[in-house]
Structure formats: C-alpha cells, structure tokens
C-alpha cells in the first residue's frame, strides 16, 4: 500500500517544480516582470504565472479540494496586454519529463481565459473543515525583485492540520551543507535551486529543483544546538516584517554574537530545516498585521518534520484553521525542539514582544 498522501506529495512537488522554473525565467529577466512598482506588496508576472500552473495541477488531480491562493485574476481581466504576457509565459513553461507533465500534472493550461479562471479559483476562505491547499506563488517578492531569495510555496491542510508541505527555493544552494547566506548568486542558477518537502509523520527531504518528483530526495534534519550562544538567527530582510531591534536584544540575552542572516521568504524555514541555520524568529512589528496562512503552512510542517518546533511568540502552535490568516497567532519562533523552550522564554522577557 502506498503511504498516506503519496499522490498529493508527488503532484505538489511537480507543480512546485514547474512553477519554480517559470519564476526562474522571470527572475533572470532584468525587469523581473514587475507589474506594480510602487506598491508596498509588489507583484510580478511570475506571481500570476506560477499560481496558474499550480492551480492547474491541483484542479486536474483533486477537483473538489478548496484552494487559498494569494493572487486574484481581476487585474488580468482589465489589462489584456498583461494577461497576454502571462499567457506567453504559462504556455511555454513545461517540465522536460513529458510523462510527469501530461500524466501527473494534466498537461498545458487550455487557453488564456482558462488561465485567468484558474488564477481566480484560489479564493477559498479557508477554515477548519476539509481539504484546503494554500499557495504563495512567489513568497518574498521583494527579495525576488532585489535579486535575493524567494520561495514557491504549497501546502495541503486537512481539517486545519498541515499534512503536506512543499517549498521551491530557486536561489538557495542545492547543497544542504552549504553555509547559510542570503547571497543568491547574482542571478546565476549554477548549483542553485532546491525543493524542500514534508508529509506529516514521514520526515522532511530536499532535492535539486531540476530533479523533482519523488526520486532523488535526501532526508534533512535540523542541526542539534548544544550551546545556544553558538547558534545563528535567521530573520526577514524587511524591517517592516519582523522587529530586528527586538531580535538583536534576544540574541544578546542568549549570548549570540554572530550577526543574524537576513533572508526573504520561507527559504528561512527550509534553511533551518536542513541545518544551514538554527533559529528563525519573526517578531511582530504591528499590533494589527495578521500573518497569512500561505506564508507559513509549508515551512511550519517542513521544520517540524526535520526535528524542529514552531510556535508563535506566546508559545502557541500556528493554527491554520482560522481562515486565510493566522488570526490567533502572533509572530513565529522556529527552533530545534531541544532549545525551543529556552528561546521562547527569552523572547517573552523582551518588553513589548
Ligand atoms: N507587517 C508585516 N509583518 C509581517 N509580515 C508581513 C508584513 N507585511 C507584509 N508581510 C508579508 O511578509 C511576507 C514576506 O516575509 P519575509 O520578510 O519573511 O520575506 C510577504 O508574504 C508579505 O506579505 P505581502 O506579500 O502581502 O506583502
Ligand atoms: Mg508571501
């Protein structure tokens, strides 16, 4: 008998692989497919294209599942030139493995209208009942535009619990043992591109972006931290997304002297899951911002399956059953199980966190 969620894992890996290859094409273009420049939440043609490809794969395989996705198609209905650019990209991005492309993913998107309908169908409200996929087609768009790290994110929740998580990180080194660095290789894809995956209760793996599917995966695990003072922190590049001043106070209290590695997107979760970093802190910068489920679902499972513990700053598990946002959580602390409690205690000693 095949293990639980093996089909979901295969479809998710291939869908993320295909979408990641699409985003890489946009990334290598100097204008990076920017759609809205001044926006606080920038968007590129890669966001829409990747979302269309992932939803196409999910609709083909799991037609009755719900989908929560970050982007919506209305902009494309109003802007024909924009829709045409995205359509060119979507119809010309295919896996080399024709069998995977046609038999698993269901082949190409039919036409431009179909593409926009697919993008629009990621509008589920989420919740605690049934099978719901969460998609962030390009997490860390600011990093993507800067030439830094970003991630293509997909997770399946069943009754509010994450069962499958896949992260495509086209700019992280393939090598799990490479030192943690925010450097994305100045646009070179030599030795870069990794897919992290996890299924609840089955561990976490990494594989090169160019060889997705179920073959070629290696088990990954967090690095055991014996001395917290020797640990390294991972945090957002954007000071508006995580309070870097509070993180510095926490590092000092823990005796950590190494500077934090700042990196965009859920690439942080993948990096600590494979032991390239130790602790990911996301400390709220505002009382009103609610984290989005697509920004955390895959990473949360991958870190937990690699031997980590993930909570918010109050020590509560991330709760993906409250709709499109983590309405009942505040910030994130992801750390190896053995030291998570110590980190949490120190986080709570910092006034205002
Ligand atoms: N005030 C905020 N606090 C935390 N995260 C935020 C905030 N504003 C936006 N984000 C989200 O942070 C994510 C990127 O995180 P990171 O800093 O780890 O790369 C993006 O998905 C972004 O959402 P959006 O895409 O809607 O701007
Ligand atoms: Mg995001």
TrEMBL record:
Name of the featured protein: 3'(2'),5'-bisphosphate nucleotidase
EC number of the protein: 3.1.3.7
Highest taxon, organism lineage: Eukaryota
Function according to Swiss-Prot or TrEMBL: Converts adenosine 3'-phosphate 5'-phosphosulfate (PAPS) to adenosine 5'-phosphosulfate (APS) and 3'(2')-phosphoadenosine 5'-phosphate (PAP) to AMP.
Molecular-function annotations in GO: 3'(2'),5'-bisphosphate nucleotidase activity; inositol-1,3,4-trisphosphate 1-phosphatase activity; inositol-1,4-bisphosphate 1-phosphatase activity; metal ion binding
Family annotation (InterPro entries): DPNP, Inositol_monoP_metal-BS, Inositol_monoP_superfamily, Inositol_monophosphatase-like, Inositol_monophosphatase_CS
Entry keyword set: Hydrolase, Magnesium, Metal-binding
Residues that coordinate or bind Mg(2+): 70, 136, 138-139, 295
PROSITE patterns cross-referenced by the UniProt entry: IMP_1, IMP_2
Catalytic reactions of this protein: adenosine 3',5'-bisphosphate + H2O = AMP + phosphate; adenosine 2',5'-bisphosphate + H2O = AMP + phosphate; 3'-phosphoadenylyl sulfate + H2O = adenosine 5'-phosphosulfate + phosphate
Broadest EC class assigned to this enzyme: hydrolase
Family under the similarity heading: Belongs to the inositol monophosphatase superfamily.
